[in-house]
Write a sequence for this structure.
């Protein structure tokens, strides 16, 4: 045997005993287990923290997308509103009859007591008032159709009493010049009343305003379209007759009107 071999043999023999002993008492797995547990203890908070930041990022991105979508929808609505306003102005000024009138456009911002399918509109609230020089008595139109009159006003809003409202009465005439008084009866109905029995009324005839403009140009100009005769109630024993009218405007569907501020 070579010199030094017993010493190497003893060293390897001792190491074998140590390995056998450690294996016998399951001590060889300790470092691996310790390392594994340590890695798990360190990685778990890191994973939770990274997941937390990912959720924040995703929530912020989703919130920003929702805000961008809402802003885009608002711009589309505003654009559509501008298109409709321009169209309303174009249509209004294409009408032949009130072309010589000084018109103030106004938006409807309210209709008290109006319930679709139950009660028809009888008053409108518009976004024009004393600041726009709107005064009580000003006529309000849609195209060449009379809508009503300004009956109350504040600085920024006014109330329009519609021609179907029982509180509004004014003189009108038929196409043939027969005079009468337009009276509202509520819920969308109105009549040409106080017409002499001797005067001739015809079904289908148009009824227009006579006009009551004042020196300050407030009031109602002549020849605005009020409505059309749909039926006639004439009692031979009465001094007067009356005709039921219908308007050419669906008050429940309009959103813009024009206040007449006099003649140009």
């Amino acid at each position: 045997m070579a010199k030094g071999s017993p010493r190497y043999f003893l060293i390897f023999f001792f190491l074998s005993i140590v390995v056998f002993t450690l294996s016998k008492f399951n001590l060889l797995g300790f470092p691996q287990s310790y390392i594994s547990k340590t890695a798990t203890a360190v990685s778990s908070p890191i994973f939770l923290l990274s997941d937390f930041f990912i959720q924040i990022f995703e929530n912020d991105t989703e919130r920003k997308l929702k805000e961008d979508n809402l802003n885009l929808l608002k711009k589309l609505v505003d654009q559509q509103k501008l298109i409709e306003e321009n169209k309303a102005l174009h249509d209004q000024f294409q009408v032949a009859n009130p072309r010589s009138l000084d018109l103030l456009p106004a938006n409807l911002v309210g209709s008290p007591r109006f319930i679709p399918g139950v009660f028809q509109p009888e008053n409108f609230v518009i976004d024009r008032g004393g600041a726009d020089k709107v005064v009580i008595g000003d006529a309000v139109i849609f195209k060449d159709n009379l809508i009503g009159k300004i009956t109350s006003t504040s600085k920024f809003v006014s109330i329009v009493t519609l021609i179907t409202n029982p509180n509004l009465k004014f003189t009108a005439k038929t196409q043939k010049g027969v005079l009468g008084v337009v009276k509202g009866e509520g819920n969308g109905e109105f009549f040409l009343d106080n017409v002499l029995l001797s005067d001739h009324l015809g079904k289908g005839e148009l009824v227009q305003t006579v006009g009551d403009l004042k020196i300050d140009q407030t009031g109602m100009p002549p020849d605005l379209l009020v409505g059309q005769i749909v039926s006639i109630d004439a009692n031979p024993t009465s001094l007067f007759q009356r005709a039921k009218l219908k308007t050419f405007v669906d008050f429940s569907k309009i959103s813009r009107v024009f206040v007449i501020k006099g003649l140009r």
Notes: The mean pLDDT is 79. The first strand starts at residue 101 and ends at 110.
